[in-house]
Design a protein that fits this description.
This protein is mainly beta. The chain is built from 1 helix and 12 strands. Strands 1-2-9-4-7 form a 5-stranded antiparallel beta sheet. The radius of gyration is 16 Å and the shape is globular.
Length: about 160
């Protein structure tokens, strides 16, 4: 049996948004309300890294503030002016700006749309098995299991 062929190219805006708004436990889902992700890497069957075309409505966040143990991340702003929040403080970004987050770096990061217009950005991250995610502002810990699933627990290890 042959595997279905992935397209060589697509129009990014035509990729359907993810059906599930958030992978977080229910008590944290509200943070990403107004976020729309189009999983571009999945369209091509990419396995080592993911690429998302992400739209943040006014008031939406890209994620809870977080850091990864194994995953490098990069974001590139296409439209709008998101606010990048890190341990160093806040920084307003605009079209053409990018930010990178090295695996294992202390602290955390996320983007918040505090403007009146949508923000559109590209997110790129690898899919390293064993990645653990720290959420410094929340009672949450995440990990990427060997089968590619995300598992969440409280900081003390109690499952959600």
């Amino acid at each position: 049996m042959t595997e279905p062929r992935s397209p060589a190219a697509v129009r990014a805006a035509d990729v359907p948004p993810r059906a599930r708004q958030s992978i977080y436990p229910q008590r944290f889902v509200h943070v990403t309300e107004g976020r729309e992700k189009r999983a571009l890497g999945d369209v091509f069957g990419l396995q080592r890294f993911g690429v998302n075309l992400t739209r943040l409505a006014p008031g939406a966040s890209s994620a809870l503030r977080h850091s990864h143990s194994q995953q490098d991340e990069l974001v590139y702003v296409l439209e709008g002016e998101p606010t990048l929040i890190t341990d160093a403080g806040e920084q307003r970004l605009g079209p053409g700006d990018c930010a990178g987050f090295r695996a294992g770096a202390p602290g955390g990061h996320h983007l918040v749309n505090r403007s009146d217009d949508d923000v559109v950005l590209i997110e790129i991250g690898d899919r390293t098995p064993g990645d653990e995610v720290t959420y410094p502002d929340d009672d949450l810990h995440g990990e990427l299991t060997p089968d590619g699933a995300r598992r969440f627990s409280h900081r003390d290890g109690t499952p959600y």
